[in-house]
């Protein structure tokens, strides 16, 4: 059994949905040493999230942002947690809906993503800053 882990900070991004698959692979190149296993990507924040979805057409990422802004609007007067701005509580809710980690099978030294799948960093804050991740891969 091989186990590899890397903590990484990704550069600041604007609000929206951003493909980070290549950055994950670059951060943990030892994935290529695993014939069969699992890779987990975990974000260490409560106002950004991770998901896997369409990696080819950028309009999918635009539509994700539009959808989540409709479902979890800003400036709702019922939010009590608003110390960090009108995007803060909605960011926490969006993060809770999407989740803080993704788990991907490793097959023959590669992430076993589907043809049109990629890993998204979902930045829910207007000024989220650098985001920290822990990437862990294990297997044979």
TrEMBL record:
Domain of life of the source: Bacteria
Signal peptide (residue range): none
Gene3D superfamilies per record: YjbQ-like (2.60.120.460)
Family indicated by similarity: Belongs to the UPF0047 family.
Protein name per its UniProtKB record: Secondary thiamine-phosphate synthase
Record organism: Pedobacter paludis
Top-level taxonomy: Bacteria, Pseudomonadati, Bacteroidota, Sphingobacteriia, Sphingobacteriales
């Amino acid at each position: 059994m091989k186990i590899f882990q890397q903590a990484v900070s990704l550069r600041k991004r604007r609000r929206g949905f951003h493909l980070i698959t290549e950055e994950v692979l670059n951060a943990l190149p030892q994935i290529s040493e695993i014939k069969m296993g699992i890779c987990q990507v975990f974000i260490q924040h409560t106002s950004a999230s991770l998901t896997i979805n369409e990696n080819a057409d950028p309009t999918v990422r635009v539509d994700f942002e539009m959808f989540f802004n409709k479902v979890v609007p800003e400036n709702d007067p019922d939010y009590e947690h608003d110390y960090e701005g009108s995007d803060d509580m909605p960011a926490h809710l969006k993060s809770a809906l999407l989740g803080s980690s993704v788990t991907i099978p490793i097959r023959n030294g590669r992430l076993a993503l589907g043809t049109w799948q990629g890993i998204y960093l979902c930045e829910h804050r207007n000024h989220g800053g650098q985001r920290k991740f822990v990437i862990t891969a294990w297997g044979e």
